[in-house]
Amino acid sequence: SRTWKVAAAQLGPVHLDTPREETLNRLIELLRSAALQGATLVVFPELAFTTFFARHLFDNPTCLNAFFEHDTNISEASSTKRLFEEAQRLCVDICVGYAEQTPEGRAFNSAIYYSAQLDQVVAKYRKVHIPGTREPHPDLAVINHLEKRYFEPGDLGFEAFRAPRSRQNADGEDDVIMGMLICNDRRWPEAWRCYGLQGVELILCGYNTPAYNPYFWGMSKLMSPEMARSTAVTQHKLVMQANSYMNSCFSIAAGKAGLEDGRYELIAGSCIVGPEGQILAEAVTADDEVVCAEIDLDECRPGKENIFNFAQHRRVEAYQRVVDQ
Ligand code: CDT
Asked: On the chain, which terminus has fewer CB atoms closer than 10 Å, C or N?
């Protein structure tokens, strides 16, 4: 068996005026709490260091810039490095999402994987499926989701990477094949399959999913806020469970939850899912919470060797449309 104690660090609301230091302290608290429970991998949400700023229209570039990381080395940047120093001290790997501004001025919704054992960032992913719109809604600010205004689609593809399980594992070390997705990406089977084809064993996904968002079901259908929230949670779990099953891999989803900026609710539901599509652990609050599970990566094998043995059963000659259109 290749067991690994892993965690999703769900983050409660972060507001526009929440000081960066305060949010960083909360992330570090979650990291410590996960480490105390024995986890040696912690996944944090998408855009973990700030509020989900893409719901707002910023005319002033200085205000907007404050939500981005400008340093190419996020583990050393003054605004974020305390999290990485603590991960190193505790010997815990982390996956964390942030808004990336490149030296050329390009903007991506990114995530990195930091290996404590190697003491370095071993992989970076830039969100491919950028949802929402460029222009704000003329009169319904509560549904604004302006990611298309602030981010360009990621240009790094879906490259699986390997990292060693932490040295704290009693049963020895080996590399785990992992892949990162960011929020809306989890709804796209093509993204999962790109990783599945590389033999991925564990998918890491941070998210910020509005509890009320008519884009999900088309602008015309009326739904109560309760119905909308429960539909959004159902669909979130549905895609995590179905795609984990169809690619015979584990997955960890860590969300930002609760009422941000006074009126914008994000769903909770951070969870850890197994390769049979089963939920192994899930959040019970809509606030800061660590969700932990011990997973055995060898459990990916039956699926990969049988029902989803891609080499044996895929019929690529029938799939041309998927890449042509
Ligand atoms: N952050 C993010 O990608 N959220 C999307 C909602 C988009 S609604 C226009 C999601 O898929 O959860």
From this structure: C
Q: Who lines ligand 1 at CB under 6 A? A: 46, 131-132, 145, 183-184, 187, 207-210, 213, 215
Q: Which tokens sit at 105?
A: 């001025």
Taking only the tens place, the pLDDT of each residue in 174-216 is: 899 999 999 999 999 999 999 999 999 999 999 999 998 877 7
- E-state strands within the chain: 3-10, 41-43, 68-69, 93-101, 107-115, 120-126, 161-164, 175-182, 202-207, 250-255, 258-260, 264-266, 271-273, 279-282, 289-296
Ligand 1, atom 1, lies closest to the CA of 208
Q: Where are the domains of the chain?
A: 3-324
> Would you say 30 and 9 are in contact if contact means Cβ atoms under 8 Å apart?
yes
Helix boundaries (H) for 127-224: 147-150, 189-196
What ligand 1 atom has the least distance to the C-alpha of 209? 12
ipTM for the predicted complex: 0.98
Tokens of 233: 């949670």
CB atoms within 10 A of CB 171: 10
**89-110 per-position pLDDT tens digit:** 999 999 999 999 999 999 999 9
Question: How is residue 54 annotated by DSSP?
Answer: G
Provide the 10 A C-beta neighbour count for residue 122. Answer: 16
Please, what CATH class does the domain formed by 3-324 belong to? alpha beta
Specify the pLDDT at position 167. Answer: 57
pLDDT-derived band at 269 (thresholds 50, 70, 90) equals very high
What are the C-alpha distances in Å from 148 to residues 27, 100, 209? 27, 14, 15
pLDDT at 294 over 60: yes
